[in-house]
Amino acid sequence: MMKNRKPDGCREVLKLKIAIVTGASSGMGREFALQIPQMYKNLDELWVVARRTDRLKSLQEQVKIPVRIFDGDMQRDYIFEKLQRELDRRQADVRMLVNAAGYGKIGNVSDIDLKEQCGMVDLNCTALTRMTGICLPYLSKGSRIVNLASAASFCAQPGFCVYAASKAYVLRFSQGLAAELKKRGILVTAVCPGPVRTEFFDRAGALAASEKEALCAEPEAVVTQALTDSVRGRSVSVYGAAMKGSRILSKILPDHLLVWGMMKINHADI
Ligand SMILES: NC(=O)c1ccc[n+]([C@@H]2O[C@H](COP(=O)([O-])OP(=O)(O)OC[C@H]3O[C@@H](n4cnc5c(N)ncnc54)[C@H](OP(=O)(O)O)[C@@H]3O)[C@@H](O)[C@H]2O)c1
């Protein structure tokens, strides 16, 4: 915390301006960690969260502002307790929170290990909500929250069921929160990309269809668009014409037709 002497002699506390990025060790989270300090020149520190310490350390060498590492598992309590303590101790002013930590598992519900299925809900929904709740008292007018949802949130997805449902939660949670925080001048954006070329698919399993591979976007472009949409105050950021089209279709087609279509695309009826 820095102290600044005002001309009249009284001391004004200047809060530590920070951005927090979860899932910063790879993919889109890492890209947010690289792009945010280039966009926001007045940040004092960048706080990054993920389990792989070595990956977070490599960010310290690449980012021009001080990077504070919170290495830990967001499916456990200690990491949140540590973050809460540090936010309070440093009297932080969180200018931006990016909730990017998340994972998916491709396959039918009956075929995926139950622990993995519940883990998706724990990380994608519970940890994201907890992180947001912890940061809320430290956000102020002009602060932004960016939540990684997915185009998978647009409709029910046989063959990617739990993941799509978890991302539907992120989308609806973000939209509701955006309305709640409007009066405080805090903006919330849900990012809904289609497939993005990251390590996501190492854990999720191979893409079901070659058409999806052809649709794969680059993380740099998706993140640039997400940050631009956040600055413009958009509550939803969708990258690319194909995903924008999917969103429109999901609003006009009946549910049973969407589910049938996703069943075919995901080969979930095999
Ligand atoms: N790639 C896509 O096609 C795609 C499309 C739409 C939406 N998304 C969403 O975008 C977000 C970022 O995904 P990505 O594509 O960048 O995938 P990624 O490269 O696999 O990144 C996932 C990040 O989450 C972190 N993470 C995973 N489990 C964690 C845990 N238990 N505790 C703390 N951190 C954890 C990982 O770090 P550690 O392993 O070091 O912990 C990693 O930094 C996710 O929410 C994903 O669902 C991805």
TrEMBL record:
<comment type="similarity">
    <text>Belongs to the short-chain dehydrogenases/reductases (SDR) family.</text>
</comment>
<dbReference type="Pfam" id="PF00106">
    <property type="entry name" value="adh_short"/>
</dbReference>
<protein>
    <submittedName>
        <fullName>SDR family NAD(P)-dependent oxidoreductase</fullName>
        <ecNumber>1.-.-.-</ecNumber>
    </submittedName>
</protein>
<dbReference type="GO" id="GO:0016491">
    <property type="term" value="F:oxidoreductase activity"/>
</dbReference>
<dbReference type="InterPro" id="IPR002347">
    <property type="entry name" value="SDR_fam"/>
</dbReference>
<dbReference type="InterPro" id="IPR020904">
    <property type="entry name" value="Sc_DH/Rdtase_CS"/>
</dbReference>
<keyword id="KW-0560">Oxidoreductase</keyword>
<keyword id="KW-0521">NADP</keyword>
<dbReference type="InterPro" id="IPR036291">
    <property type="entry name" value="NAD(P)-bd_dom_sf"/>
</dbReference>
